[in-house]
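Here is one chain, start to finish.
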Amino acid sequence: MLIGGLPVIVYAALLAAVVLLLVRHRGLMRGARQAVTRTVWCPVQDRNLTATLEEEMWDGRRVDITECSAFSPPTAVTCGKACLRLTQRPRPATVSGLPLLF
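Its structure:
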């Protein structure tokens, strides 16, 4: 069957692709997680640490920290986990010739 010169299956495939993109964009396909070990920057201690993170398999979003080298034992993570919200390490301030006011 043709609609506007194209088979119905083409329209169905386009509709399915649009729906999947909307679902992914809204974050509705969450659930499958994987544990990965990464070096992350800790904004509290202002240094790089090794941590085992749970990440979403779909988009790589950091969800939780299960181990961190800042704690003893590493599984006793008791911080606010601010590193989960960081996407990259903040850049140091550039020198502008003016004194920094703290």
